[in-house]
Amino acid sequence: MHCPFCRHSDSRVIDSRTSDDGLSIRRRRQCPQCGGRFTTVETASLNVIKRSGVIEPFSREKVMSGVRKACQGRPVTEGDLAVLAQTVEESIRQTGTSQLDANEIGLAILQPLRELDEVAYLRFASVYQAFDSLEDFEAAIAQLRLDHPRARGERAAASILE
Predict the structure, then answer these.
(1) HEC profile for the chain?
(2) Is 144:128 a contact under the CB 8 Å cutoff?
(3) How many whole angstroms separate alpha carbon 161 and alpha carbon 1?
(4) I want to staple 85 with a disulfide (CB 3.0 to 4.6 A). Which of 49, 63, 67, 107 is the partner?
C-alpha cells in the first residue's frame, strides 16, 4: 500500500476493525517514511462472469438498476432497493464463492424481491426463469397464491373444519 502523502511503498498497520456489516475491514496505517496516517478499507473481491465471458466486479448498483426496472410504477423506494441489493450481496458472499455467473445473481434476487413486491417479482422472474408462455405466468401466480400468508391461513382453517 503506497502512502498517499509521499508515495512510499510501505506502511504499518496501527489498528484494524471490522465494519458494521462484517463484510470489510477498516485499517489505520502509518507511513514509516513521512509519518502520515491514513485509512484503508479491505473487502473480499466478488466477481461476476457475464454471458460473454467477461469478468467484472460485483456491483450493488447494477442489482438495484435491474430490480428498479421491475419495480417501475410499484410502491418500492430507493431504500427498499438498497436493502434488497445488500441482502443479495450478503447471500452471495455466504456461498463462499469468489466468482459466479450473472444468471446466479438474477436467481439470488428472486426471493428477496418476492418478499418486497409480488408484481415486481413476476416481472423479474419472467426474465430470469425464462417464461415463454402464459402457462409459466399462471404457474408462478398459482405458487404465489399457495405461499401467500392469507392463503396459508385459509388452508389451515379449512383443514381444522374438516
Answers:
(1) CCCCCCCCCCCEEEEEEECCCCCEEEEEEECCCCCCEEEEEEECCCEEECCCCCEEECCHHHHHHHHHHHCCCCCCCHHHHHHHHHHHHHHHHCCCCCEEEHHHHHHHHHHHHHHHCHHHHHHHHHHHCCCCCHHHHHHHHHHHHHHCHHHHHHHHHHHHHC
(2) no
(3) 70
(4) 63
What's the pLDDT score for residue 128?
82
**Cβ neighbours, 10 Å, residue 137:** 14
Q: Which single residue is written with the C-alpha cell 417479482?
A: 121
Q: What pLDDT, in 10s, does the model give residues 55-106? A: 999 999 999 999 999 999 999 999 999 999 999 998 998 888 889 999 899 9
| Partners of 29 in the β-ladder | 13, 38
- Residues belonging to the chain: 162
Grid cell, residue 100, equals 459466479
Dig out the grid coordinates for 69 from the structure. 426496472
